[in-house]
Design a protein that fits this description.
The chain has 170 residues and is an alpha/beta fold. It has a single domain, classed as HUPs (Rossmann fold, 3-Layer(aba) Sandwich). 41% of the residues lie in helices and 18% in strands. It has six helices and five strands, in the order E-H-E-H-E-H-E-H-E-H-H. The chain has a five-stranded parallel beta sheet with strand order 3-2-1-4-5, with helices on both faces. Strand 4, helix 4 and strand 5 form a beta-alpha-beta unit. The longest helix has 17 residues. It binds 4'-phosphopantetheine.
């Protein structure tokens, strides 16, 4: 009988404050590679996010609605423990430039030490999004620059409302 490979669940963790079209591109490409993809927002009290975890999950949920095998979740604590608890054998991360590489390399080695059975897989960012980050998008938007095409339209309107509520947000 032919060998039937078992379904692979992958986990795409991040801050997603907010989701950008770069993230979305990675989600689309990963959803084709893996049977199931869990996109999970880090619930980290230490960072001062612009959007709450539930707001970020809402935006993600809206953006990934068209993908049948993609689920949105949140987590805290160790990433690899959460991955194991969710049955994910693969962690997906994106690399935009060499500057991303060093941090990702450290995390990968640490995560492998903690849980050798979980593999980290890197996808190179699509050229058009290789300069896009949540941090820069927020900064450019706050300073009145054009971010159309860099985030889903719904995220742009959320940013508008957030900065109208409190223009001093960074
Ligand atoms: O989008 P980000 O901010 O680059 O994502 C970073 C993230 C969430 C992947 C990383 O901070 C993380 O995994 N945090 C969970 C805590 C943890 O497991 N730390 C040890 C990693 S080696």
């Amino acid at each position: 009988m032919a060998h039937q490979p078992s379904p692979v669940t992958a986990l795409y963790p991040g801050s997603f404050d907010p989701i950008t079209n770069g993230h979305l591109d990675l989600i689309r490409r990963s959803s084709v590679l893996f049977d199931k993809l869990i996109v999970s927002v880090l619930d980290n009290q230490a960072k001062q996010p612009l959007f709450s975890v539930s707001e970020r999950m809402e935006m993600l949920g809206d953006a990934v609605r068209r993908f049948d095998n993609v689920e949105v979740d949140s987590f805290n604590g160790l990433l690899v423990e959460y991955a194991a608890a969710r049955g994910a054998r693969v962690i997906v991360r994106g690399i935009r430039a060499i500057s991303d590489y060093e941090f990702e390399l450290q995390m990968t080695h640490m995560n492998r030490r903690l849980r050798p059975g979980i593999e980290t897989v890197f996808l190179m960012a699509t050229e058009a999004y290789s300069f896009v980050s949540s941090r820069l998008v927020k900064e450019v938007f706050r300073l009145g620059g054009d971010i159309s095409g860099l985030v889903p339209p719904m995220v742009e309107s959320r940013l508008r409302s957030r900065f109208e509520e409190n223009p001093r947000h960074t």
